[in-house]
Amino acid sequence: MSQASLFTDQRIVNVASVPQRSPFRYAGGKTWLVPRIRQWLGSLSVKPTELIEPFAGGGIVSLTVAGEGLAEHVTMVELDEQVAAVWKTILEDAEWLAEKIVTFQLTYESLTETLSRKPRSIRERAFQTVLKNRTYRGGILAAGSAPLKYGENGKGISSRWYPETLKNRILEISAIRQRISFIEGDGLEVIKQNANCDDTVFFIDPPYTAGGKRAGSRLYTHSDLDHEELFRATSIIKGDFLMTYDATDDVRALARRFRFETELVAMKNTHHAAMKELLIGRNLDWVRLHLKGENAS
Description:
By secondary structure, the chain is an alpha/beta fold. It has helices spanning about 5-10, 35-40, 60-70, 80-105, 110-115, 120-135, 165-175, 185-195, 225-235, 250-255, 285-295, and strands spanning about 50-55, 75-80, 180-185, 200-205, 240-245, 260-270, 275-280.
């Protein structure tokens, strides 16, 4: 069966059926991929000692792996200082952040005033980041973004601001913080530094594709990435890896060049439109097996 027909036939993951563990929301989130992550790691002969997510962003894959014990430990890597501040604070000062969120009285005035202040600490930057991510269009943190005007059901900036839910997610992450490490830095360099670890696996979801910007707005401020160098670094990884990209000709060409396998999987974007995403790996027999079973059922 062709990739096109597989994509047409396979069932699209209902993200509502996946535990929502991340405090972030944004267009490039990978909640929909969680069932595939479970399938991938479950197909390995031995549970990985470490999973590294070099471009962590909202971190749903790392949080799932840590929360469900799919690897002994996870390391999240993020270059963006705003996103990094959130992960640092959750792992080191979660109670403060959770309390700050539930006691904040959200109005347009308080939002504007809070975000206009220069943060005096990492934890203040973390709160500003969560606040902006939850009240700005698409959760975008990059310059030029703007607050929600109408939001869901005309609720404006309050439509995605769920203080108690955010508090619970933050405290739940804090409860498993011994299984999580965080690095503020260059994900590509972290891949190179750990490529020789044969008991380490990598989930690689770069913020931009070789074919251009992902469809929809992005969370990240940083947009420069040497995609050819990323594929080259990935090719020397001794353990396993799973990479996700937009399904563009440029990306497919890179995958062929480095002798990686590719497979299309179904997904839905934030507007519930059916789309496709390209999985890339050294051996994707596990996903083809599951796709065949899904198509037959």
